[in-house]
Amino acid sequence: MNYHNVSFLASYGLKAQLPPSKRPEIAFAGRSNVGKSSLINRLLGRKAIARVSSTPGKTATINFFDLDHQLHLVDLPGYGYARVGHQEKLRWAELIEGYLNDDDRDLALVVQLIDMRHPPTRLDLDMIDFLIQRELPFIIMLTKADKLNKTEYQQRLEAIRDEIPQSDQIVIIPFSAETGQGVEELRGVLQELADYCAEEDGEQP
Questions:
Q1: Around Cβ 47, how many Cβ atoms within 10 Å?
Q2: 40 in Cβ contact with 75 (< 8 Å)
Q3: Under DSSP, is residue 54 helix (H, G, I), strand (E, B) or coil?
Q4: Which helix (H) or strand (E) holds 27?
Q5: Whose CA is closest to 40, among 190, 171, 145, 164?
Q6: How far apart are the first and last CA of the chain?
Q7: C-alpha angle 5-38-101 in degrees, rounded to nearest 5
Q8: How does pLDDT run along the chain (205 residues), one tens digit per residue?
């Protein structure tokens, strides 16, 4: 799969605006400022295909990207930004939950992002519980891994297994937008999904 062959498709601010799935979708979820845009940019080898903002909560829409005419990447709004007004929070929640609760979507995988430096927040754990209850396939990317020294890195890697429910059944990949750690592992997961989906459709991967 050519990760440089990517194009922005559209943004949607309301659940009712979302079009039907046209390709298998990979959704990226996480709290505001966890590094979602940085991960997507690093994955695709681009500097700004996904907007990186110093202001948390900037992404207020669901953004769709086409990856090599095989997968659609779906950048969900970040959650948990306190300075957003109540009505805006409700709109975001309706948008995210409406997308994830839609049984008609071709949702192949959710990539859940968690800041490796800290224990998962209550909202992070709520999202993981939601994904488990809905039986949605997901993996966890631990962002900002380069911000830890070797001792801290090992301590957090061990602790995260106790902090996340059913962690022994979840693929967990440390990631750094600075060094590129974890990028090839994520690409491998996406390639397997693309190949599997192509086989299911009767195509050659």
A1: 9
A2: yes
A3: coil
A4: strand 25-29
A5: 190
A6: 9
A7: 80
A8: 999 899 999 999 888 899 999 999 999 999 988 999 899 999 999 876 765 444 444 457 899 999 999 999 999 988 876 555 666 666 767 888 889 999 999 999 999 999 999 999 999 999 999 999 999 999 999 999 999 999 999 999 999 999 999 999 999 999 999 999 999 999 999 999 999 988 887 654 4
* Size of the chain in residues: 205
> For residues 73 and 65, is the Cβ–Cβ distance under 8 A?
yes
Task: Using the structure block, give the residue that is written with the tokens 């957090």.
Answer: 156
> Torsion over CA of 157, 158, 159 and 160, rounded to 10 degrees?
50
Q: How far is CA 191 from CA 2, 76, 110, in A?
A: 10, 21, 15
Question: What angle (nearest 5°) sits at the alpha carbon of residue 42, between those of residues 197 and 30?
Answer: 75
H helical segments located in 137-203: 150-163, 183-200
Distance of CA 202 to the CA centre of its chain: 27
Three-state DSSP at 77 gives coil
∠ CA 39-203-107 to the nearest 5 degrees? 40
**Distance between CA atoms of residues 86 and 151, nearest Å:** 40
Residue 21 CA to residue 104 CA, distance in Å, equals 8
Calculate the alpha carbon distances from 165 to 59, 96, 200 in Å. Answer: 28, 22, 31
